[in-house]
Write a structure and sequence with these properties.
Layout: H1 3-21, H2 24-27, H3 36-57, H4 59-67, H5 72-81, H6 84-96, H7 103-119
Helix pairs in contact: 3-5, 3-6
Length: 133
């Protein structure tokens, strides 16, 4: 027997022992179909979490947190511990509470109301309109 035959037999013996000793459940891959909504929901939750963490990193937010007597590291740790639903709720509240977010639509609505009242001869606000009567 030469050295190569001993090496081959040892390799065959080691691989055979490995196949017998490792349970088949560990060696087998488990795959399942994922729905599109599950995948999109996961990525949306990650994007929401990242957006909230970016807001926490802003200098004015950090200054306000420190002014309230809260450690910024503790605030970030608490933010990381929030569930996906809580983060989505918090982002929705932040979007709804932005000061002046609807100012353009409000000004446009006021313009249209004044324009209509000018055209119906209830007011005389704009010089470029003529009364319908």
């Amino acid at each position: 027997m030469n050295f190569q035959d001993i090496g081959k037999k040892g390799m065959v013996l080691a691989l055979s022992a490995q196949m017998v000793l490792i349970p088949p459940s560990i060696a087998m891959a488990q795959a399942e179909m994922l729905g599109t909504d599950a995948v999109i929901g996961k990525y949306t939750a990650l994007a929401n979490r990242d957006a909230l963490m970016e807001e926490m990193q802003r200098a004015d937010v950090q200054a306000e947190i420190e002014a309230l007597g809260i450690d910024p590291a503790e605030a970030e740790a608490r933010l990381a511990a929030l569930s996906d639903a809580e983060i989505a709720t918090m982002l929705t509240q932040m979007e709804d509470d932005n000061a002046g977010a609807g100012i353009v639509s409000t000004l446009f609505s006021v313009f249209v109301i004044l324009l209509v009242t000018d055209l119906l001869c209830f007011t005389r606000f704009f010089n470029f309109t003529r009364c319908v009567r």
